[in-house]
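Consider this today:
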Amino acid sequence: MNWKGWLLRSSRQRYRTNSPPEYADLMTPHLAAGQLGEYFKAADRLAAYLKCVSEVAAGNREFVKAKAAIHNSLTELDMPAVKYFLEVFAPDHERLLVELA
């Protein structure tokens, strides 16, 4: 067994064991279809994107190009969950804490 196969199987089992039933039921079809790797890829890119967003919001202009490139790669994934996250949650990461209060 290669390490990627082991990681995916281990992740599936951990997800099923640790998730509330209502969430496990939502993701089970994706896990069964072998789409877990795509979700990991999306989560990794979203984390990188949010890091860039926070750096740009803090005035660090070095992250502007990376933010745009990662945003493009996220939209190319063509995943409804990623699109929703970018539209609903990501904009708040560009705001200052004072603005959120």
In short: The helical segments are 3-18, 21-32, 36-57, 64-76, 80-88, 97-100. The chain has a mean pLDDT of 81. The chain has two domains: 1-34, 36-101.
